[in-house]
Structures are given as structure tokens and as C-alpha cells.
């Protein structure tokens, strides 16, 4: 019976080590690495602040890009198409055209302005009402205003829709002012590219900062690492506390970045509110969502882990015990 018990324990020990001992050892080393940061508060705080500030800039730029997209999406009339009908088209034919246009899947709204309504509006706005009374007939054509759907309101899609509408037999001319919209989209794309470029550079700086910080920590514990190797400790066992240090740096740096971005958004929301009031707009600056904040912290942890991994793989292997 005792022999069977020993055999059963020997069979269960690898599984027990995998399910209990190994996670417990990782937890101990993670807490121990947090204690190492606590024992050097000044350098740890400085590193966290540098990481947080480095992550705050691209996160803030992302915030402004996200809000600018919300503003541009509110401009539904950005690609409104004006169709000027032929002078020979009467109201009945024009209304038939409107009914056909409403069946287009690319069109969200159709508004018909008759020639009489167009002349009345022109008289009230131009100031030439008395002069226009001397005309024998109405020189203005009937107009159909077409509002595309959001998908069809994009620059290329709006051009294709305009070309399609101009093929209608009642249409004399179609007008679509896309120049300013094209410039706006180009500027938005430029800002997004700048954000990506700045984010990549700052992420590289975060990796280098954490790598250098971990390298200094390894150099300070060089003798202890040599002793650990002398008594049989593996490189992976020695590396874990330093890897967890990088993870902790990423967590605290990401949290600082989230707080800084939220503070900047709150600070700027007052000024943006005053500006939008001048344009009679109800736009409100929105901050980072919970998922975006979580992704920011996750990216920070990943950068911290990469920086610490590069540093420990390079420097711990170089430390070997020497026989005196």
C-alpha cells in the first residue's frame, strides 16, 4: 500500500506543479518585483512618469481624431447633389423623376424645388424682384436636391452617383461641390498618419526606456545573479522578476496616461464648448471609452514586457559565475 501511494504521488506531482506550484511561484515573483520598485521609489516614479507622458501624446491625438470624425459625420449635406432639370420638363415629369430617384439605394432624401418656387426664392434673396417682373418667362429651371446615404456620401461614391444621375433624361446638369470635402478628407488622413507615426516613435522610446531601466537593475544585482547561477538557478527563473518589473512599469504608465488624457479632455472641453456655442452647435468633446483605456493599458504592458525581455535576454546571459 505505501508503495502504491508513493507511485500515485509521483504521477500527480508534475500535474500538481503545473496547476499549483508554478502559478504560485509566478505570483511570488510578481509581488517581489513590485517590492523592488517600492524600494527605489524615486527612479520608479520617474520611469512611470516618462512612460505615461510618452503614451499620453498619441492617446490625446487619437482622442482628437476620434472627435473630428464625429464632427464630420454630422455634416450629412456635405455631398448634397443639385440636379438642374431641363426647361422643357413640366411638374408632372419632374415629380415622376423624384419618385424614381427615391428608389435608388444610394439616395437617402430627395427634395423637389419647382421653377416657380426657385424664382420666388431668388426674388427674395437677390433684391432684383421688380426687375424680374419684366421677364416674359421664368428663366430658372426646376431643381432636385439629392442627399446620398452615408456610404454614398464618400468622395468617390458621390462622384459615381452624380454621373449616374446625370444620365436621367430630365436632368440638364448636376452639381456637386466636392473640392472642400476632398481637402477635409485629405487633412483627416494626414492627421491619422501623423498620429500613427508619432505613436510608433513614442512606443519605440518606451521600449528603450524600459529596457535601459531593466538593464541598470540587472547591473545592480550582477553579483546576486552570479551567485544564483552558481547554485543552479536557471536563466528563466532569474529573468522572471525583471520581466514582471516591465509589466508593472507598463501598468502604472498606462494608468497615468489614462488619467492624463481624461484630465486634458476635461480641461479642453470648456474651451471647445464656448467655441461651438458661437457656431450654434451642441458638440461635446468625448474622452476615452473604457475599452480604449483598457487597450491603452494593455499596449503599455506589452511595450513594458518587450523592453524588459530584450534587456534580460541580452544581459543576464552575459553574467556568469567566476571561480575565485
Automatic annotation (TrEMBL):
<keyword id="KW-0472">Membrane</keyword>
<dbReference type="InterPro" id="IPR040690">
    <property type="entry name" value="FtsX_ECD"/>
</dbReference>
<dbReference type="Pfam" id="PF02687">
    <property type="entry name" value="FtsX"/>
</dbReference>
<feature type="domain" description="FtsX extracellular">
    <location>
        <begin position="80"/>
        <end position="165"/>
    </location>
</feature>
<dbReference type="GO" id="GO:0032153">
    <property type="term" value="C:cell division site"/>
</dbReference>
<dbReference type="Pfam" id="PF18075">
    <property type="entry name" value="FtsX_ECD"/>
</dbReference>
<keyword id="KW-0132">Cell division</keyword>
<feature type="transmembrane region" description="Helical">
    <location>
        <begin position="194"/>
        <end position="218"/>
    </location>
</feature>
<feature type="domain" description="ABC3 transporter permease C-terminal">
    <location>
        <begin position="198"/>
        <end position="313"/>
    </location>
</feature>
<dbReference type="InterPro" id="IPR047590">
    <property type="entry name" value="FtsX_proteobact-type"/>
</dbReference>
<dbReference type="InterPro" id="IPR003838">
    <property type="entry name" value="ABC3_permease_C"/>
</dbReference>
<comment type="subunit">
    <text>Forms a membrane-associated complex with FtsE.</text>
</comment>
<dbReference type="InterPro" id="IPR004513">
    <property type="entry name" value="FtsX"/>
</dbReference>
<protein>
    <recommendedName>
        <fullName>Cell division protein FtsX</fullName>
    </recommendedName>
</protein>
<dbReference type="GO" id="GO:0051301">
    <property type="term" value="P:cell division"/>
</dbReference>
<comment type="similarity">
    <text>Belongs to the ABC-4 integral membrane protein family. FtsX subfamily.</text>
</comment>
<feature type="transmembrane region" description="Helical">
    <location>
        <begin position="293"/>
        <end position="312"/>
    </location>
</feature>
<keyword id="KW-1003">Cell membrane</keyword>
<keyword id="KW-0131">Cell cycle</keyword>
<keyword id="KW-1133">Transmembrane helix</keyword>
<comment type="function">
    <text>Part of the ABC transporter FtsEX involved in cellular division.</text>
</comment>
<feature type="transmembrane region" description="Helical">
    <location>
        <begin position="247"/>
        <end position="273"/>
    </location>
</feature>
<dbReference type="GO" id="GO:0005886">
    <property type="term" value="C:plasma membrane"/>
</dbReference>
<keyword id="KW-0812">Transmembrane</keyword>
<keyword id="KW-0997">Cell inner membrane</keyword>
Amino acid at each position: 500500500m505505501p508503495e502504491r501511494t508513493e507511485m500515485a504521488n509521483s504521477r500527480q506531482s508534475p500535474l500538481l506543479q503545473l496547476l499549483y506550484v508554478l502559478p504560485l511561484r509566478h505570483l511570488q515573483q510578481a509581488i517581489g518585483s513590485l517590492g523592488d520598485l517600492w524600494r527605489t521609489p524615486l527612479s520608479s516614479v520617474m520611469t512611470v512618469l516618462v512612460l505615461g507622458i510618452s503614451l499620453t501624446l498619441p492617446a490625446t491625438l487619437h482622442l482628437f481624431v476620434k472627435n473630428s470624425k464625429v464632427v464630420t459625420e454630422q455634416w450629412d449635406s456635405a455631398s448634397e447633389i443639385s440636379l438642374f432639370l431641363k426647361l422643357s420638363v413640366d411638374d408632372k415629369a419632374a415629380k415622376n423623376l423624384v419618385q424614381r430617384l427615391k428608389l435608388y439605394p444610394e439616395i437617402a432624401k430627395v427634395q423637389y424645388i419647382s421653377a416657380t418656387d426657385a424664382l420666388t426664392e431668388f426674388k427674395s434673396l437677390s433684391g432684383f424682384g421688380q426687375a424680374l417682373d419684366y421677364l416674359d418667362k421664368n428663366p430658372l429651371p426646376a431643381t432636385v436636391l439629392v442627399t446620398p446615404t452615408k456610404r454614398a456620401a464618400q468622395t468617390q461614391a458621390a462622384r459615381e452617383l452624380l454621373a449616374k444621375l446625370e444620365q436621367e433624361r430630365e436632368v440638364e446638369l448636376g452639381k456637386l461641390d466636392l473640392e472642400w470635402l476632398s481637402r477635409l478628407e485629405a487633412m483627416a488622413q494626414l492627421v491619422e498618419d501623423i498620429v500613427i507615426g508619432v505613436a510608433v516613435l513614442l512606443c519605440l522610446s518606451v521600449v528603450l526606456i524600459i529596457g535601459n531601466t531593466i538593464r541598470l537593475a540587472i547591473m545592480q544585482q550582477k553579483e546576486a545573479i552570479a551567485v544564483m547561477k552558481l547554485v543552479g538557478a536557471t536563466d528563466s527563473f532569474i529573468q522572471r522578476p525583471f520581466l514582471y518589473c516591465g509589466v508593472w512599469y507598463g501598468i502604472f504608465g498606462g494608468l497615468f496616461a489614462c488619467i492624463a488624457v481624461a484630465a486634458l479632455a476635461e480641461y479642453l472641453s470648456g474651451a471647445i464648448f464656448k467655441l461651438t456655442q458661437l457656431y450654434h452647435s451642441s458638440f461635446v468633446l468625448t474622452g476615452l471609452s473604457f475599452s480604449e483605456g483598457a487597450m491603452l493599458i494593455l499596449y503599455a504592458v506589452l511595450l513594458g514586457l518587450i523592453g524588459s525581455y530584450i534587456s534580460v535576454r541580452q544581459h543576464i546571459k552575459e553574467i556568469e559565475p567566476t571561480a575565485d
